[in-house]
Structures are given as structure tokens and as C-alpha cells.
Write a structure and sequence with these properties.
heterodimer; A: MetI-like fold; B: five-stranded antiparallel sheet; 10 helices
Chain lengths: ~400, ~260
Amino acid sequence: MYTNNHYPQDQDFRQALSGRYRTATIWQGLFLSALLIAIISLTALIYNVVDGAFGYVAFDYKKDPAEFTSTPLTELTQDELIIILKDNLSSGAYKKLENEKPMQKRSQAELYTLFLERLVQLDTKETWSMTNSLMNSEKIKAEVAEKYPTATLEFRSWLTPQFLVTPMSSKAEFAGVRTAVLGSLWLVGIAILFSLPIGTGAAIYLQEYAPKNWLTGIIQTNINNLAGVPSIVYGMLGLAIFVRVMEPLTSGALFGVTDSNGRTVLSAGLTMGVLVLPLIIINAQEAIKAVPDSLRQAAYGVGATRWQAVWYHVLPNALPGILTGSILALSRALGETAPLIVVGASTFISLDPQSPFSKFTALPIQIYQWTTRAQSEFHAIAAGAIVVLLVLLLTLNATAVLLRNRFQRRW
Amino acid sequence: MENKYAIESNNLSIHYGSYTAVKNVSVKIQPQKITAIIGPSGCGKSTLLRALNRMNDFVPGCHVTGELFLQGQNLYGNQIDPVEVRRKIGMVFQKPNPFPKSIYENIAWGARINGFKGKMDELVEQSLRSAALWDEVKDKLQESAYALSGGQQQRLCIARTIAIQPEIILMDEPASALDPISTLRIEELMQELKKNYTIIIVTHNMQQAARASDFTAMMMIDDNRAGGVIEFDETKKIFTRPSDKRTEDYVTGRFG
């Protein structure tokens, strides 16, 4: 039928074929190396964080513990510690501590920490990273013995159970992330309470109700663009709207809270909510779009109204997707730092956030603040805090994934 | 006069924007009969069918002119709520589309949203029996409808439609996604159902139209790509001595 055959034959074909395979191999190699680069970066990141969170520390006491008590340090009881503290602290300082939390209610460990912090004044001389500590153990020991003859050298994990439940302190050795973790949870909680219903509602309206015209086109484009706006811009927005304009509301003045300004966890949470709103809308829209049209038609076919079709069929089937979107948004909110700085997160605060109208700090703020300090022990606790943040992130994601799977099984 | 026909259209035209998809359809559908709509692909059969219970309302840019009477009421009149239309004129779709719920819920849901006040268990059983599905599913009413075979799913969709007790049932190629045995069962079911309901069915399958329907509407597109009913008569007549040459060509397989 074909008078001219324009295809290469036998030998030529095979040659061309090996050329095609060669091209494929090159591309495959490129994709593999891309994956390897990603894996190496991730491993390096995790190594770097863990490396900082453990290691040798050399510390000294500014005052000899023997000045305060004759009992060995490890055997001090709660009552003894209170007496020591009362005798040696200035009455003003003691009263201040008593006001924060009555001495009798503090545990032995807390009191012992106070004793170390305020009286004998633990003084960290130098810290080493985990790798360095393990590889050059002998060298470090020799160095410490020479430079700080009275100091104690100890291999320490900066990430301890104590670290999780202690509030902020000006001494790295006694600082913890309790306030920051609680602040972050409050933030994310408020953000999701605000943005999940609003975002899902907006997505339902856009997908199921809004007519497809130029106006909805513009709105859609803008939502997509908003998802890419730098977070600091949302911070400015939060400062202008939530902190300043809505101050009576966000400071709690309307609800009888008097000792607060607009820089509350509520303002920050709402700012975060606005920040993740476009993400939630877009994801919810995708999830709603993925519900097959035949399902809507089935509902309409038995005489359902639009709302009934949406409420009983579209929404339940889109829910797993909407939750997945919220997981991503949640992670974003948990790690955001810039808007919090603008909205006015406190960098030093040792009181737990008690209500939406509390001052607050958050993990990323704390980490940022610690990494900017000159002393190396703060870098170590920053690494510890990063581990906490990552674990928190994974826990939240895992919870959400479990939740999503449960919904999925119920169709 | 009014009740002589189940549904009656008068110069019904369906437009998508400026394009007319179906033009000037005037047919009178007999009650408690099966009416088949046949014709080549793209002639507007499904479009016409969907216009009958205002399913086209959801298609952006679609609008309908002309009149469509159900018991003397113009379904495209200003006072008519499309939800009410769909309540009276049920629909079975081409691809079985049960709700992703239990078999029981598939039937109960439509009844519930329409304010059914009777005994739900009875309604479910009755509907499933009418759709010739009861014996196969009576022991697994709480199981997912998705676990059923395609043919069973389609019969469930029919049961779901019957449950809301419509006056007319529209079927859009209900057997095109099914194997021959399931197809046959659906056809047998249609013969049962026509005792109580008026059925209008779109089909590509000429034999199906010939053996299962009482009346046949033949559709064809004109030069402007607008579909229209070129012949509407008893099925026997359409398939043996049609009056239009184009119908004859089509049903004998010489065209389309």
C-alpha cells in the first residue's frame, strides 16, 4: 500500500532505539538525583537539629553551694529549699516569686532549679555539639580541665521532660518551651476555628452556588493570589485590623478584661486564620470539585434542593479532602514566624496563656529569639525547641490523618 | 382532555446560549406506556429528556422556550418550583449512581427529604420489591450500595426513584453500561413498572426500543445542528412502516 517506506529499518531502527533508551536513562538519572538531593537535604536538616540538641556542657557555680547549706545537694527537701531561698533572696525578689506561684505549691524540682538559678548561679562556660562531643571527647576534657579548672563537664541532652514543662527563663539552663508550646496550640486552635468554617463555607458557595461570571472569576483569581502573598503582609494586616482597630474586642476589654492591649493570642490567631484562609478555600474547592457530578444529579433526581444535595452528599464526600487541606494549612500556621513578630508576640514571657486575651509567645518566635542570642547554650536549647516543634507538627498531622481516614471509612 | 396525556410538550426548544440544541418539539406522551426516544448520537435525546424534569436548570447557559404540560400545568411557568417538578418526574441515569450509603439509606433518603410520613421499612421493602431487587438484598440492607453489581445498582436507582412515588420516570440509556442479562432484567422491570408509571426512555439500542416500548419518538438533527422529533408514533409502526424516509433508513440500519 505504501510505495515509500519512510521508517528506518532493522539496523537503523535498532540504533535509533538505543538512542531513545539513552535519553530515557539520562532523564531517569536526573529525576533520581533530584530525589537524592531532597533526601540529603532533609537528613542534613534533621542531623543539624539533633546535633545541636545534645552534647557536652562545661559549667561552674558562681557561688559554692556549701555557702547556703550543709546538706548534700541531692538530698535537699522542699522545706529546706524554701528556707534557704527565703534566707538568701532579697525580700522583694522572694515576694515576686511568691506572687507568681506560692512557694509551698512548687515541687522540689522547681525549687531546686530556683536554688541553682538564683543562689548558686549556675554558670555555663561552654557547650559542644553532639558530633564534636562524641568524636573529640578526650580533647574537650583536656581543654576544660585547662581553661576552667573548677568547672564540671557533663554530657547533657538539652531536650528533657523538664524542658517541655518549664516556662521561659533568662538562663538557658533553666529555660523551657512550656509557654511557647501552649501559645502555639492556642494560635493554631484559634486559627483553625476561624478559618475552617469560613473557608469551607466560601468554597461551597464558590463551587456550588456562585454563577460562573467575570466577578467570580476575579474573586477566584484573587484567592489564588492571596495564597502566595508573603506572610509578613498578613502580619501588617493583623496589626492594623485585629490589634489596632478591633482592640476592644481582641484585648477582651468588651468582656471585662482590663490588663491587656490588642497584642493577644486572639489577634495573632485571627491573623493566622486569615493567612491560611486562601489555602483552606482552595483545598476545599478542589475537594468539592472531586465529588462526582453524578452524585449531585442523583440527589436532584429524587427531588433534593441544592442545599440538601450539598449538605447530605457533597460535603460528607468532600470532607476527607477538606481535612487534608486543613492539615497543610495547620502546618503552615504552626511554623509561621513573621506575622507573629509584627502582631506582637512577646519574646519573654513566663506565664501560660490563660484565655484568648492573654499575651503569648509561640515556638517559632522562641526559636528565633534564642538563635539570635550570643551564648552558645541558647543555640542548644533552640535546637531542642526545633525538635519539639517538629514533633508537634508530626503529631498534629498524624492526628488529622487518622481523623481523615476514619471519615473515609464511613464514606 | 387534560389528563388524557401524561405529559405534553408544545414547541419546546432547548438552547445553550445562542445555540439551539433541540427545536420545536411537540409530543403528547401517553400515560402508563413506555415511550422510547431514539436517534443518532448528538441529536439531543438526552437533552430533551433532561428538559422534561428540569435537570437542565443546572447546566450554565441553558434555557428552554415553549411549553411543557404536566396535568395542565406548564412546568416552565413562572410559579413552578423545579424541585417540585423533579419530585413528580423521577430520573434514572445512564451510569448507575447510587449514593455512597447503605442500600436502605439509598431509598430512605429521598423519601425523608420529601417529608415521607409512613413506615420507612415498609417503603424500602415495597420499593425494592417493585424494582425486583428485594430478594437479592433483603439480608444486606445495611451494607454499602457500592458492593452491588452494576445491574443491581441500576435497579436500586430505579427503586430509589419509585420510592418517592413520581408520576413519570425518565430513563437516560439505563442499560447502556450493563451486560445483556442485566439489560434484560431492566427491560422486564420496565414492563412491570408501566402498570403504575409512565416511562420515557432514551436508548441507543434499536432492538431495545423495538421490543420494550409502546411509542417511539425519532429524533434527528437539521442543517443547523438543532435536534428535533421528526416522527412520533406507535413503536410497531415506526419499526415496520415509518412515514419518514430518514426514520426508515435509521431503524433499518442504513444510516447512523
